[in-house]
Design goal:
Number of helices: 1
Oligomer: single chain
Strand content: 35-45%
Shape: globular
Structural class: mainly beta
Distance between the termini: 8 Å
Largest sheet: 7 strands, antiparallel
Radius of gyration: 21 Å
Helix content: under 10%
Length: 431
């Protein structure tokens, strides 16, 4: 089958699919409106009853390189690994829990990277028969302690991602909480004199073992030094990192791109959640389901990717809701699909695309509709509330979080019983 590309308003089906309440792990249902298969990968037994979820960044590396391992985490911050069978759509939780910031390698399906404090380590999984397991050996990759100011005590770390070739890592650090980050560190392999660079936001200075050092060249109408960061992340391209200022110091809606070998930090002038491709960022700020393409190397060369006739608003509909988006499969020319999960509490739906998983062809702007999220948006947990999706590295699957309209049983949040969320995976291989 081919995924739908029409703009027909599609309400939730009645009755809703039965996911098995509190204990429905590995239940497979077909979305009656979109024809795709969806599997529920976690349930109330996965992590002692707490809600299970994906991540707050769709490009965070939750999937391994061949779609056979998937990280899921509970609302307390502990992660577990699910071994996923792409042929049967069944999952098996592996032994053990993983702390720290985690992302899978983009080149080796058996490697998981972990950042704890200032240290990145490589964790390796092995396969015996058909079962994968962590070997228990952590190989050091780098330590940012030598880049940070003397006595720096890490209390907050940004999103943690690795470039598409596994050469480059970026991490933002703070001695306080999120929205107080002060230092952005880069490690890149292949440099004889050492692989470290650091951007000190408080001083506007760049230091390091490679590239140009000195005063940062900030080009932005919204942000000036000093400021504090909301987020920092590595793109798939080892050349570029993204720096998002805190809402209190600049505009969080206007992230900056850092060409990390240089002193150049440039405002991309794009608002809304963005998919970070290899050469471009795709911003949802135009609204209505549209995305704005902004090249990292030339922010003036923008374009809207969806043809006007392909938008719900041009067809008499009113699109409503927030959306989170990201690439799973990367292409050096961004000739790939990024995936979006939208969330709105407006019912009945007033347009196509509301509360759906959908994919955007970054070049043509064609939007493929995969499934309903079946999510109410009423959870107090941010990731569950927004049904945030994480596409796999091959582009074959999208994992997303849902409360299945409150049908998955209950969990306790701050002493109050609320409907739990779980991780679901939709098969989009027919796109």
């Amino acid at each position: 089958m081919t995924l739908r590309t029409d703009l027909k308003i599609t309400q939730l089906p009645s009755p809703l699919p039965n996911w098995g309440a509190l204990t429905g792990k590995n239940t497979i249902q077909t979305d009656p409106d979109f024809g795709t298969k969806i599997v529920r990968l976690t349930d109330g037994m996965t992590c002692l009853g707490s809600s299970m979820q994906t991540a707050d960044q769709p490009e965070c590396g939750l999937w391994n390189a061949n779609d056979t391992l998937l990280l899921v985490r509970n609302t307390g911050g502990s992660s577990v690994v699910i071994q996923f069978n792409p042929a049967t759509l069944q999952g098996k939780q592996l032994t053990g829990k993983f702390d720290g910031n985690l992302c899978f390698s983009r080149t080796d399906p058996a490697v998981l990277y972990r950042l704890i404090g200032t240290k990145i380590a490589k964790l390796t999984f092995k396969t015996v028969g058909s079962v994968m397991s962590y070997t228990g050996t952590a190989t050091p990759v780098c330590d940012f302690a030598g880049s940070l100011p003397a006595g720096f005590k890490v209390k907050w770390t940004s999103s943690f991602m690795v470039s598409a070739d596994d050469t480059t890592f970026v991490a933002g650090f703070s001695e306080g909480q999120q929205n107080s980050g002060s230092n952005i560190c880069v490690f890149q392999t292949g440099h004889a004199g050492g692989g470290y660079r650091m951007l000190d936001i408080t001083k506007g200075q760049i230091t390091g073992d490679w590239g140009i050092t000195g005063a940062c060249n900030m080009v932005s109408p919204h942000t000036t030094f000093p400021f504090v960061i909301h987020e920092a992340m590595q793109t798939a391209n080892p050349q570029y990192a993204i720096v998002s200022p805190s809402p209190a110091h600049g505009a969080e809606g206007y992230p900056l791109v850092w060409d990390t070998a240089t002193l150049n930090l440039t405002d991309m002038l794009g608002g809304g959640h963005a998919a970070k491709g290899y050469l471009h960022a795709y911003f949802g700020g135009p609204g209505g389901g549209q995305y704005l393409e902004v090249p990292y190397a030339n922010i003036a060369a923008t374009r809207m990717i969806v043809p006007r006739t392909g938008l719900p608003g041009q067809n008499g509909q009113k699109y409503c809701g927030d959306q989170h988006t990201g690439f799973g499969k990367f292409d050096p020319l961004d000739n790939a699909t990024f995936w979006d999960t939208s969330q709105s509490q407006v019912t009945p739906f007033t347009s196509a695309w509301m509360n759906e998983v959908r994919g955007y062809n970054a070049q043509t702007g064609v939007v493929s509709r995969a499934c309903h999220t079946f999510n109410s948006g009423n959870s107090p947990s941010f990731i569950v509330q927004n049904a945030i999706g994480v596409p796999s590295q091959t582009g074959s699957f999208v994992a997303f979080t849902s409360d299945a309209m409150g049908s998955l049983g209950m969990t306790v949040v701050k002493g109050k019983a609320v409907p739990r969320g779980d991780v679901f995976v939709v098969d989009v291989r027919n796109l």
